[in-house]
Amino acid sequence: MGQPLFTVLKKGLYTTFQDLGRYGYQQFGVVTSGAMDSYSSQLANILVGNARDETVLEITMLGPALRVEADAISIAVCGADLSMTVNGNIAPLWKSFVVKKGDMIQFGKPVSGTRTYLAVAGGFNAEAVLGSKSYYAKAKLGTEIKDGDILFGQVSIFRKNTGLSHHLIPSFDKEVKVRAIPGPHVNYFTEDAVKQFFSDTYQTVQGDRMGYRLKGTKPLQHKDKAEIASDAIPLGGIQVPSNGEPIVLLADRQTTGGYPRIATVISVDIYKIAQLPPGGKIRFERCSIEIAHELYKKREIFLQSLQG
């Protein structure tokens, strides 16, 4: 079971265990889950000396109240600024620091972004299901966090005062430009619809870990039918159902879907959508798969360099 780390006095709006996802089981209808903003979750783990895929707390909008139960542990919080405090004092983001037994960690008003990630040196103990500790609410996979729970972990030699330079910290804006690769079903849409998709401004009208529904100035027009044979759904796939309003599919997306996909968001830009507040705005920019690969490689090199 490990050592007690925190008592959850209040779980907040939606606080869950997440790692980098549950892969290899989509063919059986099991969703991948994992951190919505995997970039921030990996950075939090790196800053406390963990492996990048270690389990973290994903904290959404209104965060929890946690009492520290271990004598001393190193933590790092990366992602949205949710006004985190320790014992009432403003706590740093994007930097590892030590908290001690009896300390109170709380979150307040969201300042920027919607999801933040708390990593602890040594990681959290949670139920592993099909190779992942990520919690998936609809199927009750993994360990649910509730008020009054004690969160356990494996306390390791802690790293502290390790942080990112200011220019390396991503910004979380309410209006974002997101790169997307056209296809694979552009032939299901009129030419005007494809042009419109890459020129219009979309607003998030409904969203959760499964995906975000978007609304533009007018619906996207299909050439004929708005259905396809069920097809595997990638992270960032953008479906367009018969109403012509796009849906960007995210961490808890279904494994297959029967609506044509007009484009797919590149992986390095997923965090921008994951951090959008309700009513946030998106403009899509065409991107080639070659550029998407280069950007992914560049980010991987950067993350590996931080690990040392």
Describe the structure.
The chain is an alpha+beta fold. It contains 4 helices and 20 strands. The strands form 4 sheets. The protein has a 7-stranded mixed beta barrel. Strands 7-6-9-4-1-11 form a 6-stranded antiparallel sheet, with no helix packed on it. The chain is elongated.
Keyphrases for this structure?
single chain; 308 residues; alpha+beta; Cyclophilin; 2 domains; 6-stranded antiparallel beta sheet; 4 helices; 13% helix; elongated
How are the secondary structure elements laid out?
Elements: E1 3-10, E2 14-18, H1 38-47, E3 56-60, E4 65-68, E5 72-81, E6 85-86, E7 89-90, E8 96-100, E9 104-106, E10 112-120, E11 150-153, E12 175-182, H2 191-197, E13 201-207, E14 211-215, E15 231-232, E16 237-239, E17 247-249, E18 256-257, E19 261-265, H3 270-274, E20 281-286, H4 289-307
Parallel strand pairs: 12-20
Antiparallel strand pairs: 1-4, 1-11, 2-3, 3-10, 4-9, 5-8, 5-10, 6-7, 6-9, 12-19, 13-14, 13-20, 14-17, 15-18, 16-17, 16-19
